[in-house]
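Hi support team,

I've been running sequence recovery on a batch of backbones for a student project. Most finish fine, but this one hangs at about 90% for roughly twenty minutes before it completes. I'm not sure whether the input is malformed or the queue is just slow. I've pasted the structure tokens below so you can try to reproduce it. Let me know if you need the job ID as well.

Thanks,
M.K.
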């Protein structure tokens, strides 16, 4: 058994529950490629994972909720922004497994529940909105909640923001192997993957997968909010945990982690003009909908990199669609203007 096969076997031994419809489609985007006059582009449709209107978090939750089950937990707690895709999908997955869910969200309570926040409530989550931008304050609330639940005889399991730890990122090591199989079936050599990267879990898993296969594929993260240094540090930390979890024979190198923070704009959760343009362009070339928080900014990043000559007609690029479309309805005003 080669080292790669050994480590794939180690991944397969991790506990996992079935939540996602896999494999997700890989669609070529010829009209977008023609519009950009750039690389040959494919879109990996993780917006079609099926759970709670789809999205990338289903892959992570398969591994995370398996851990919760193995530990006999009966309450799932997680955190996110008011329009968190992760919170929405965690709430749905918990209900699917017969578990109570509590989502602790940071931000301003909207006048009316819309988008992901509305879905959190439909899925039966207990929603607590904390008006803070300080993660230490937010996690302090979670820690107090966890202690109270334990005093009440419950067994809580806390999932970090975005499901981003080694177990969650394992879902994206598996996802890379899925994509690799699809590209090999097409007979196409892949040069790069471009995706939204914020909490770092997706990028950590994809990066680890490409290294596991020694593929030479670059994994390019487009930050939707945090500075490049913050995302890079998160990715390196999770990859280090993954290396230990899967008993890998190498260590991550900071220079290998590619993150751009040029497309964030004012701040996380606020769409930029380039983001809104990217949403409209993909909708009008390929009939595929992006979201204004993550994938819209990531596509704006891909378009910007093409314009800079970072990717040319000689390259084959996969844009990893991580989902998030329910947030479109929370930004209806901005999207109606174009």
């Amino acid at each position: 058994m080669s080292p790669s096969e050994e480590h794939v076997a180690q991944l397969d031994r991790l506990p996992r529950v079935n939540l996602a419809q896999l494999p997700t489609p890989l669609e070529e985007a010829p009209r977008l490629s023609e519009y950009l006059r750039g690389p040959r582009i494919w879109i990996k449709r993780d917006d079609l994972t099926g759970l709670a209107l789809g999205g990338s978090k289903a892959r992570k939750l398969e591994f995370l909720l398996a851990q919760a089950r193995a530990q006999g937990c009966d309450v799932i707690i997680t955190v996110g922004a008011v329009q968190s895709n992760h919170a929405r999908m965690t709430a749905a997955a918990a209900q699917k497994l017969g578990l109570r869910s509590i989502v602790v969200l940071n931000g301003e309570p909207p006048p009316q529940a819309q988008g992901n926040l509305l879905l959190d409530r439909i899925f039966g989550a207990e929603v607590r909105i904390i008006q803070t931008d300080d993660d230490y304050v937010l996690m302090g609330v979670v820690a107090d909640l966890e202690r109270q639940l334990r005093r009440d005889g419950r067994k809580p399991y806390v999932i970090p923001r975005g499901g981003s730890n080694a177990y969650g990122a394992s879902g994206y090591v598996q996802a890379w192997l899925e994509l690799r199989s699809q590209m090999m079936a097409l007979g196409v050599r892949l040069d790069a993957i471009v995706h939204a990267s914020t909490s770092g879990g997706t990028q950590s898993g994809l990066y680890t997968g490409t290294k596991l296969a020694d593929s030479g594929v670059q994994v390019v993260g487009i930050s939707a909010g945090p500075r490049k240094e913050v995302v890079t540090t998160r990715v390196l930390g999770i990859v280090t945990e993954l290396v230990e979890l899967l008993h890998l024979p190498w260590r991550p190198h900071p220079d290998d982690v590619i993150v751009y923070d040029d497309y964030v704009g004012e701040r996380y959760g606020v769409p930029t003009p380039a983001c809104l343009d990217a949403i409209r362009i993909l909708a009008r070339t390929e009939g595929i909908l992006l979201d204004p928080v993550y994938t819209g900014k990531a596509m704006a990043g891909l378009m910007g990199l093409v314009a800079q000559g970072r990717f040319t007609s000689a390259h084959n690029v996969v844009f990893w669609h991580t989902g998030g479309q329910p947030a479109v309805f929370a930004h209806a005003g901005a999207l109606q203007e174009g």
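--
Follow-up from support: It reproduced on our side and the slowdown came from queue contention, not your input. The chain has a mean pLDDT of 95. No action needed from you.
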